[in-house]
Amino acid sequence: MPRIEFYVLSSNTTAERLRAACQLAGKAWRHGLPVFLRGSNAAQCTELDDMLWHARQESFIPHALHQDDPKSPVVIGIDETPDATQGVLINLGSTLSPHIEHFSRVIEIVNQEPDLLTACRENFRSYRQRGYDPKRVEL
């Protein structure tokens, strides 16, 4: 059963949320874990791809959009089935991933934007209803 964590940011900006997702993806990859970055839509996936390409030069994170390379160490997608198992899912979608059981760890990134807070609270309840024990982590 995967470990579920809600990383809570104090900001209410989407940019900070995406930046946190990229940082967490890099950290997980450096620890040898496959990562699936789940965006909320195609535009957000493209933005994440761009952010990872323009991250600091000394900390390149090998990544690809799912349709380009589903075997990349860091994969960006929406609801595609992950190629790797037992890695980390970083969920930026407003709903639960249909592939939770493929991962050993699921991270939901929450900021203070009201609509997102509502969606994340619902996700928290949904995880509990499914028998998970989600934890809250302040960033």
Description:
With 139 residues, this protein is α/β, with parallel strands linked by helices. 32% of the residues lie in helices and 24% in strands. The chain has three helices and seven strands. A seven-stranded parallel beta sheet has the order 3-4-2-5-6-1-7, with helices on both faces. It is globular. The chain starts with a strand and ends with a strand. This is DNA polymerase III subunit chi. It comes from Phytopseudomonas seleniipraecipitans.
Rough shape? globular
Low-pLDDT residue spans: none
Measured between the Cα atoms of the first and last residue, the distance is 24 Å
Strand content: 15-25%
Helix content: 25-40%
Widest sheet, order of strands: 3-4-2-5-6-1-7
Radius of gyration, Cα only, in angstroms?
Answer: 14 Å
- Along the chain, the helix and strand elements come as EHEHEEEEHE
**Classification by helices and strands:** alpha/beta
> Mean pLDDT across all residues, rounded?
93
Q: What is the strand tally? A: 7
Total helical elements: 3
Largest sheet: 7 strands, parallel
Quick structural gist:
This protein has 139 residues and is α/β, with parallel strands linked by helices.
Record keyword descriptors for this entry.
single chain; 139 residues; alpha/beta; 7 strands; 32% helix; DNA_pol3_chi; DNA polymerase III subunit chi; PolIII_chi_sf
